[in-house]
């Protein structure tokens, strides 16, 4: 989630069907028997998901965040499970993501700004490709296989007028566990993950601090 060259967010969490409010996630519940194997699970220090997405920052004060994206690598799944052919892009993706968040704090400085956000993120498994960034509703098609509460920090480094480089970090706690088409569970109950993402932000309205952001990143096991 990015903000303006004169303002961005510091802890950014997405809430709703994609990145629902949960400030301060705390520690994860004891590990289940999925630790180290399965879909989107792994051992401490391992990356279990890689993703690509876009975030829209809107609202009268830039306090609303909406994100759509797709998964490009998932522990326990093959490339053919993730994409229906080439190229590996949004149009062929079979696992899509929707996230929504709300700004909880903002600190603006000269060229480095910080935002706090809380929200939730949902993962959907499509039976066929068809997601399109021009159609936000297409990212919630399919079967819900996972949902996470998120608490993120977004630090934005402004490098040019209306342009910034965001760095998003934070925690994800899994609140819903579904199954992919093969029958395996996606993730594990109450599992805590770390999110990291970076990309490019563009300010679209300097008065309302609305912005658009392209990001890519990963989820890892603490």
What does this structure look like?
By secondary structure, the chain is mainly β. The protein has one domain (10-202). It is 2% helix and 50% strand. It has an 8-stranded antiparallel beta barrel. A hairpin with a 2-residue loop joins β6 and β7. The chain starts with 9 loop residues before the first strand and ends with a strand.
Task: Spell out the blueprint of helices and strands.
Layout: E1 10-11, E2 47-58, E3 64-74, H1 79-82, E4 95-107, E5 112-125, E6 143-160, E7 163-177, E8 192-205, E9 210-220
Parallel strand pairs: 1-5
Antiparallel strand pairs: 2-3, 2-9, 3-4, 4-5, 5-6, 6-7, 7-8, 8-9
What's the number of domains? 1
Count of strand segments = 9
Poorly predicted segments: 1-36
Briefly note the structural class of the backbone.
Answer: mainly beta
Biggest pleated-sheet summary: 8 strands, antiparallel, barrel
Quickly count the helices: 1
Q: What is the molecular shape? A: globular
CA-to-CA gap between the ends? 22 Å
Task: Supply the key terms.
disordered N terminus; single chain; 9 strands; eight-stranded antiparallel barrel; mainly beta; 222 residues
Summary of the model, kept short:
With 222 residues, this protein is an all-beta fold. Helices cover 2% and strands 50% of the residues. The chain has an 8-stranded antiparallel β-barrel with strand order 2-3-4-5-6-7-8-9.
